[in-house]
Amino acid sequence: MIDLQEYWTPTQTEFDAFADVSGDDNAIHVDPGFCASTAFGRTVSHGMLIYSKLWGMLKRHNGAIAQVSQSLMFPNPAFAGEELSLRIAEQAPGRLKMSVIRVADGAECLVGEAEITC
């Protein structure tokens, strides 16, 4: 049975590196000056950077796991410098529930499910 939890505090350096690797250099992720004038007031993590952290946590647990499908939603932003709680729990064999919560206020930044195989 899989039940994993880690904490991570993302950084602007990680946002910038993910933008370089992914090609998603939208200003909302990489331009603090631009973001200061938005409703968020600061840069926001790429959703797939957050998911990548979850997937890395899972692969460290069992390197043989492969993803079959995923369903993800990002209801609230994750910001640089704010601690996140990353959680993966097996709901049924091969079915995972994933969540990322901002520790400071309990806001869900990622909710989703994945189907896996070994």
Verbal overview:
There is one protein chain. This protein is α+β, with helices and mostly antiparallel strands and 118 residues long. The chain has a domain at 3-10 and 45-117: Thiol Ester Dehydrase, Chain A (Roll). 29% of the residues lie in helices and 35% in strands. The protein is built from four helices and five strands. It has helices at residues 12-22, 27-30, 32-35, 47-61, and strands at residues 3-8, 66-73, 84-92, 95-102, 108-117. It has a five-stranded antiparallel β-sheet with strand order 1-3-4-5-2, with helices on one face. A hairpin with a 2-residue loop joins strand 3 and strand 4 (95-102). The longest helix has 15 residues, at 47-61. The chain is elongated, with a radius of gyration of 15 Å.
Task: Describe the structure using short key phrases.
single chain, 118 residues, Thiol Ester Dehydrase, Chain A, 5 strands, 35% strand
Strand content: 25-35%
Q: Which architecture name of one domain does CATH use? A: Roll
CATH T-level topology of one domain: Thiol Ester Dehydrase, Chain A
Output the radius of gyration. Answer: 15 Å
Strand order of the largest sheet: 1-3-4-5-2
- Estimate the helix proportion, in percent: 25-40%
Helical stretch count? 4
Q: At the first level of CATH, what is the class of one domain?
A: Alpha Beta
Coarse structural class: alpha+beta
Element-level helix/strand string: EHHHHEEEE
